[in-house]
Specification:
Helix 3 crosses helix 4. Strand 4 and strand 5 form a beta hairpin. The chain folds into 2 domains: 44 residues, no CATH class; 271 residues, no CATH class. Strands 1, 2, 3, 4, 5, 6 and 7 form a 7-stranded mixed β-sheet that branches. The chain has a two-stranded parallel ribbon with strand order 8-9. The longest helix is centred in the first third of the chain and has 24 residues. By secondary structure, the protein is of the alpha+beta class. The protein is built from 8 helices and 9 strands.
Amino acid sequence: MGAGTEPDGSSRSDEEWERFLRESVAGVVDAPREPSARAREVTERLRAEPARGPEVWRGHTPARPTRRRGWYAVGFTASLALLLAVALAPDRIVDLVAGAGTGSTPAAPETARPTQAPPAEPALRPTLDEPFRGSPAASWASGAAGITLPKAEAVGWMGAAEVERALARSRDFLVASGLDREVLRGARPAKAIALLNPHQKDVRSFLDTAFRTPTVENDPLALFSRFQPSRAQLVGDVVKTRGRLTYREGAHGALQVTADVTFVYPVTRQGAAGGDEIVRTIVRRELVLSWDDPDKVVTEPGTFSIVSFTYEMTNGGCGAPTGYFVPPFGTDRRPDESGTELDPYDRSVPVKRRGTPGECWKATRS
């Protein structure tokens, strides 16, 4: 059937049918009416179908009033819960949004001096469960794992295998001097001292004076990390580290090893309650060690001589040396502290040397 074909077989031209549709929409008074035969056909068909409600096509059904009130109640409750969470634990909300905390992506091992300081972290307070929270150290490796050793090759009087053993022993010294739990609690670093060439008289003199009567020139903290047990205690079992060892040929064909390592120690008051303040003492040390040829230098097997050492430290105390780190807690912090500012996490610059008695570095972050 064409567009203008009537039920009785008669037909209209396409032009007349289009005029009928156009004038009907436009509201023309004398527009052609739908033929009565078609109207009768539609009417009879509708009467023959069973009664049903109107069919909605792409329609919008308003929500029932009771359902709407229910969703309002749920939304109000959720909003109230969020407000209470922000008020009671704002740091946790920041953790969720910023992705900070224990879930930080582990940093790749340091194989060369970085070109810039690590980016700033959200300003979050450390906790007993997350003592490195809000710090670049949260992504650092723990203990000896954070100290990178280079590939060993023959140097001077040593073959590759001997260089590899010397590098491992050099790292052993760093572990014994900066990570040993008993030494951190104030004990004498016997294991570390055993790795030092006993025939190096200037170092032996330094050690004797440093442990007996510490001074700026003879401070055991230049080589060893120690906290006074009656004052401070470590938080947890983890010390974060980041650094590397490098080597080259030294004097008289010796293997000269340079260590540049940063240690981050989270501590709190000795015997402190769960909510007490946590301070991060941060120490960066640079040591130059010489594994000497015993045919040219007086030494003992398995020991090295110290060529030089220097360090920088923040949050470890200011004033006359005591032989221990003295973390500043609460009112112990000096409001007029005016030391030179230092970013203790910036490993892109060389290690700085300590100055006169009472001078200390002022950390720009911890």
